Amino acid sequence: MPSVNVGTLPPQVQQRYNSKILSTPERNTIHNLFSTPVRIEDMQGNIDRQSRYEALDRFPVPVDNTQTNPPSQLLNRVDIDCRVRNYSTYIVITKDVLLTNEDPILNSAAARLGQATRETEDILQRDNLESSAALVNCVAGGNGDLPTQISVDDTDDIVALLQDNDGDFITNMIEATDKIGTSSIGDSYAAMCTTRMIPSLNKMDDFIRKFRYPNVKDTLTSEWGGINNIRFFVSSQGSVTPNASLLGNDVANIFITAKEGYKVATRDSGDGRYIYLPPGYNNDPCKLRATVATNFYQGQCIDQDLWVQKLRATGLRAI
User: Which of 114, 128, 233, 267: disulfide with 297, CB 3.0–4.6 Å?
Assistant: First the structure.
């Protein structure tokens, strides 16, 4: 008697179409979380200029008995320019797809364009910080590389550096409670890094995972934890420089910022938009294709070099 197995069944029997769309991986967008937002009014150019007056020298010497005027000082102003640019992309969808596809294809296109927009905004800021922030190497780890893996001594050095530069903390202290297994978190700067740093962060002495905070209601999903006065936020598109260490290993660029260290500039009417044009537009006389597009305006720059540090570390998870 002939046997019947799955391989002999007709295609209509072997497969079942599930109308539920699978999730698309979405990256954490962390690099604009701590930027100072600035908006440029429409028809007011495409460059945002902000100025800072430099601090004056202190004058601890008293005026002498003859009442001689002391030397005068100059009031210096520094101008910081941030140019806003337009970024766009689109998808072409043929009429046949719209007529035959069971998926809500336009809804899916809108979701993916929105994701691409947010991740592009994040990459632009990441690349700005990567190219402009002051560089500090980890040196207190024990792996014999340069930079070394991250350690508590390296993070404390960054905290001391930002404090020496009079950088304000971004988040306030989370006070201890009587909950079991929790620990307080001090006033903190923010650190943004690649998810490949997670094993190194977990190995640091006294590193506190987010679930051990006394109060987690004000945390973000991208936050991994904190140590002393730095809280770490991770993303799969965090900054990594391949083969850049002394021994040829990948190097993580960890951006640690104080309050108002850097900014993101946008236009009043330049937020990310979804644009749908039905068949018949764009030199389409036979109405054969539709387009869905997105565009946004953004500029980014560091406002105060002393308040944004790029801590370089090895010891990343291999890929």
Answer: 267
Residue 179 has a pLDDT of 62
Angle at 298 between CA 297 and CA 300, to 5 degrees: 170
- Could you say which residues of the chain have pLDDT below 50? 1, 3-4
Domain around 275: 30-51+77-319
Is residue 2 one of the residues assigned to a domain? no
Indicate whether this model's pTM tops 0.90.
Answer: no
Q: What is the SS3 string spanning the chain?
A: CCCCCHHHCCHHHHCCCCCCCCCCCCCCCCCCCCCEEEEECCCCCCEEEEEEECCCCCCCCCCCCCCCCCCCCCCCEEEEEEECEEEEEEEEEEHHHHHHCCCCHHHHHHHHHHHHHHHHHHHHHHHHHHHHCEEEECCCCCCCCCCCECCHHHHHHHHHHHHHCCCCCCECCECCCCCCCCCCECCEEEEEEEHHHHHHHHHCCCCEEHHHCCCCCCCCCCEEEEECCEEEEEECCCCEECCCCCCCCCEEEEEEECCCCEEEEEECCCCCEEEEECECECCCCCCCEEEEEEEEEEEEEECCHHHEEEEEEECCCCC
pLDDT of residue 176: 60
Question: Does 166 map to a domain?
Answer: yes
Number of domains in the chain: 1
Q: Is residue 40 part of a domain?
A: yes
